[in-house]
Amino acid sequence: MAEQVSDRITGGPQPKHQQLRELLIGLVVPGEAIPSERDLMVTYGVSRATVRKAIDGLVADGLLQRTHGLGTFAVRPRLETRLHLASFSQDMRRRGLQPSTRLISVTQAKPPAEVTDWLGLEPNQKAWRIVRVRLADNNPIAHEDGWYPAHLLPELDQQDLAGGSLYEILGARYGLWVDQAEQTLWGESADAGLAAALAAPLSTPLLVFRRRSVAGGQRIEHVVSRYRGDRYMVHMELSRDDLSAAIATPEGNPL
User: Fold this and answer.
1) Alpha-carbon distance 211 to 147, whole Å?
2) Engineered SS bond to 227: which of 37, 193, 195, 232, CB 3.0-4.6 Å?
3) Domains of the chain, earliest start first
4) Nearest CA-CA partner of 23 in 125, 45, 166
């Protein structure tokens, strides 16, 4: 919280809760807690009802967030993305942010039937499963659970999957540059495991992207990425042609 101004709120053309709201907007620092209700009452000489009405309005507007047992925090501005074919690392660098990755696991396993079908694998054929948490300026943004055909990517587990872009590894190491994908978007809420992985409150809204990618005509990736909805948003520009395509393919628009 920025340094407070100790001016007490008095009567005026604006209601007291509106005056307090505007003061709080000027004082909050994204990610930091605001003062307690009692501190605000004392600092600005207003009632608890006035404080709660001001805070409730800012929570409703998405500028503040209550976290049970911890307090009320200023919400970090959401990262905005346009749907395009790029890796997470490329996306974050384009915004001027420093991407990083926390590698959770990389193993060979038998994929679910949906993944096996998409990657064109035999029923008992294995794939690499890579689970990672993606960060921007050290803030957890997304949880990724991806599958990649093992027979096309020998020793993928020996590559630096935490230090750089997986798409760059696929291209530079294996000659498989991702050049086409389809992506589907839906919403979920974070369960206990995802909340812990993303350092988020339980039931935080998530934007879920399923991306199925192709490199040179070869199906190479099936990944589900769960982004913190309080830190990330999507921007789309639609034309009438895009609308027709959306109606024709209800599972999602191809990139």
Assistant:
1) 11
2) 232
3) 16-74 (1.10.10.10), 79-248 (3.40.1410.10)
4) 45
Dist. CA 187–CA 208, nearest whole Å: 6
Residue 187: closest CA among 206, 168, 164, 160: 206
- Cβ atoms of residues 200 and 230 within 8 Å: yes
Q: Give the pair of three-digit tokens for residue 145.
A: 């659970």
pLDDT tens digits, 26-64? 777 777 888 888 888 888 888 999 888 888 877 766 677
Q: How many C-beta neighbours within 10 Å does residue 96 have?
A: 8
Tokens in use for 100?
């990083």
CA angle 139–140–146, rounded 5-degree value: 145
**Which pair of tokens denotes residue 171?**
């291209």
Phi, psi of 176 (to 5 degrees): -115, 85
pTM over 0.85: no
Residue type, 241: D
CA distances from 195 to 180, 189, 205, 223 (A): 31, 9, 10, 19
Phi, psi angle pair for 70, to nearest 5°: -115, -35
Longest dimension (CA), the chain: 75
> What's the token pair of residue 221?
């990736």
> Within a 10 A sphere around the Cβ of 79, how many other Cβ atoms?
19
Across the chain, where does the E strand assignment appear? 64-67, 71-74, 79-82, 99-109, 127-136, 139-149, 180-189, 205-215, 218-228, 232-235
Residue 221 CB: number of other CB atoms within 10 A? 22
Q: Which residue has the higher pLDDT, 119 or 254?
A: 119
| Chain centroid offset of residue 109 CA | 27
